[in-house]
Amino acid sequence: MNIEVIFKWVLTMTIGGSIAVLIFATLSKIFKENLSARVKYYIWMVGLFCFTIPWNVLAKLGMKDIKILNQSTILDDSSYITSKLSNNNVLNLQITGNIARGRALIALPYKNISYFNPEKLVEFIGYVWLVGAIVFFVWFLIRYIWFKLVLIRNSRECSNEYCSRMIERYCNLRKISRKIKVLESDIVQTPMLIGIITPILVIPIKDIAREDLRLIMRHEFVHFKRKDVLIKWLSKLINALHWFNPLVYFAVLKLNRECEYSCDEEVIRKLKKDGKRRYAEVLYNTLLVSIGSGAGAAFGLVGKKESIVERFRFIMSFESRKMSKRAKVFVVMLVLTTIFLNAFVQIWAKDILSLDSSEIEAIKSTIEGFYETQYKSYLQMEYIDITPYLDMSKIQNQNKVIALKKLVFRRKYIDEKKYCYVEKRHFPYELHYKNIELDGNKAKVVIDLEIKLKEAYPPFISYGENIFELEKQDGTWKITKHIYDKWALMFYEFSTDQKLPEPDYEQIKKQIDREFRIE
């Protein structure tokens, strides 16, 4: 799979995800007083993960790759294309502008031979995106690892027996088999949870009143229970993939905000006004000291002083209330509708970005150009280069070139000598595209080649089923394998695994003379 395909997938996901973020931002604003912080947290979680679901890829897998059926290409003196699509597939096909010269056709694939190739630009932008994503995530990773190493190096086993008993009691109540490692450090001002596989709870060395410590520890326990550390890591990974989209930064900011607010909500749900004030004051004082610290920089857990004041106000004004069943159903329906719209927008964006249709057009152009260039060479009785359509590392394709050279030379010599009538008419033939399977930079095409009976067609026009295997090389689709009637293959190419000798034109002349009994 090449970089431009991956980048286009990311673009479709970023367009769909942006729509979801805008909708959720509007809903959060409208229903600000009706939705709890926990519901908002889950909504923003869904919104952020809308950037990771490649609906167009899933749809393709559901259809077992792209399958384009019942398409026909009729090639004659005035070549044109007709399309009949089944299964509601939509594909915009470019009418070929073949020009008749005498009875020959010029059919060069405009997608494959050009001075400017848009795919090269997309490939360049794709590499810029990839470098940006790697730099973004590696920078975050370095900062986190550095902070974790410094923190652990300046930490020791927890000597606070009350804290240890509280954690042990919590693990027993929640039936948590893995233990939470507890450390204390003088470089943190408030307890914090780090680590995904091995969770570590770090508490400050300074003396904290038992009631204050209990409230803050409950906050950290909520993070542990919901696996918020993992969510934060995934959000950073999504942010790295879509580093160029400002709406992703907005969604990550909202997710982190609602994550902390929802934890506060769980802690103060059953507290009275005095308890809320105490929790708010402890939180305010510890977070205020933490602004700009390594902890805050590592995961973005702390923000500006204004945001801490806003959080203080949220805690003091919080009133526990349950959502009605009707409200829950309404929220679920809105979320599902947004996900559906996200999928629709992605599939729409896929067509706008021409993820598949432009590739299929280029593949069809290669096959049709391959046939018509041979036919032109056949009629003009001069070899015309067909290598732009072929992967010349394959023996079969080398033999195709040699066979065409021999064929046109024989026709020209026989015509010059007037040994017999040489057909110079271009008979129409029809390509029925039975199946096109596209898998990244490889494709497989099955066509049914239809001809008019009793007409003299060149030997490279083999009626019936023809199977082409193609590969995209340097932005150009090349034929790597051509499977067709074995008797026609043996008559024309002779072999697909043993290379033919280069044509000896003097020997060919003698052979033709012998055939017509001219000594």
From TrEMBL:
Transmembrane segments: 6-27, 39-57, 124-146, 233-252, 282-303, 329-349
Annotated ranges, domain Peptidase M56: 10-315
CDD domains reported in the protein's UniProt record: M56_BlaR1_MecR1_like
UniProt cross-references to InterPro entries, sorted A to Z: Beta-lactam_resp_regulator, Peptidase_M56
Keyword check for Chaperone: no
Entry keyword annotation includes Membrane: yes
Pfam families for the chain: Peptidase_M56
Keywords tagged on the record: Membrane, Transmembrane, Transmembrane helix
PANTHER family in the record: POSSIBLE SENSOR-TRANSDUCER PROTEIN BLAR, SLR0241 PROTEIN
Record's protein name: Peptidase M56 BlaR1
Provenance organism: Caldicellulosiruptor acetigenus (strain ATCC 700853 / DSM 12137 / I77R1B)
